[in-house]
């Protein structure tokens, strides 16, 4: 179970590869 003391973290963004 996650502690309710810590706020929900945003979803991880996909790494952008230079084209």
Could you outline the blueprint of secondary structure elements for this entry?
Elements: no helix or strand
Describe, in plain words, how this protein is organized in 3D.
The protein is largely without helices or strands and 19 residues long. Helix content is 0%, strand content 0%. The chain has no helices and no strands. The termini are far apart.
Largest sheet: none
| Through-space gap between termini | 40 Å
What fraction strand?
Answer: under 5%
Mean pLDDT across every amino acid position:
74
pLDDT < 50 stretches: none
Secondary-structure-based class equals little secondary structure
Annotation field: number of helices: 0
Care to give the gist of this entry?
This protein has 19 residues and is mostly loops. It has no helix or strand.
Descriptive terms for the model:
19 residues; 0% helix
């Amino acid at each position: 179970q996650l502690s309710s003391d810590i706020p929900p973290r945003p979803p991880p963004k996909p790494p952008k590869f230079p084209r």
